[in-house]
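Researcher: Going back to the complex we discussed earlier. I've cleaned up the inputs and rechecked each line, so this should be the final set. Can you rerun the prediction on the complete assembly and write out the structure?
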Amino acid sequence: MSNLRLVTWNVNSVRARLGHVEQFVKEASPDILCLQETKVMDNEFPLKAFEKMGFAHHVIAGQKSYNGVAIFSKRPFTQGEAPLWCGKDDKRHLAITLENGVEINNFYVPAGGDVPDVAVNDKFAHKLDFMTEMTDWFAKRKHKDNRLILVGDLNVAPFESDVWNHKQLLKVVSHTPIEVEHMDRIYASHDWVDVMRHFTPEPEPLFSWWSYRSPNWEVADKGRRLDHVWVTPALKPHLSAMSIHKGPRGWEKPSDHAPVVVDFDL
DNA sequence: ATGCCGTATGATATACGA
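Model: Rerun complete. Updated structure for the full complex:
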């Protein structure tokens, strides 16, 4: 058993945030770094900077302007299976398997647009379909011995204490009941453990995202928990710590998401 | 927070985020 530190962070452009990533990696020293919204094609990804940060292994999947995920690791891995979600090759998922057999899935679930109505908003329909496919995918692969980690920007804040004001956000995309139902089905698909709530149970507020549009983000604290770390039951005994790092959200020209750190004995 | 922000792009406006 040794310590494994995992970080998940929606950086909102890896090129715009490279300095922040370097600074945070220096501070937190993760063994595995899962990024979302890299917003860069693979041939333009600043890989050398990540090698200098000490990550000997990586897998990246980007496209121009939108989406994009990446996993950087100090430990060797093999790349895992990643289906075409909703039939689109829009670079929202990567999977790796470490030498100890632990599989890490890094997701960027569609944001869903503004209007929480599938009849008038294709983006919302895409989001719900994406979550349904995640449910089916993990249900199909379910096995009691599976040691899976699921991280990323899932773009849903499921619990009342995952948003700054439950009642005001019930009709706001990310906290609507239909999205929470879809997320509950993913939870059930593999008896997932919500690691962040394992360490910080309700009703303590827990946020990982604060809008750029809200001034005085830290004082107002109108946040939402959109970023998640889940594990399958076999990994629950190996959890040792979790923390959301608000520091980088306060740095100059920040991402609107804060990095989440989870420590395992693995 | 619906709002005045931020990132990206064949850009000086538009799409997208959530």
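Model: Worth noting: Helices of chain A lie at 18-28, 47-52, 122-140, 166-169, 177-189, 195-199, 217-220.
Researcher: Good, that matches what I expected from the previous run.
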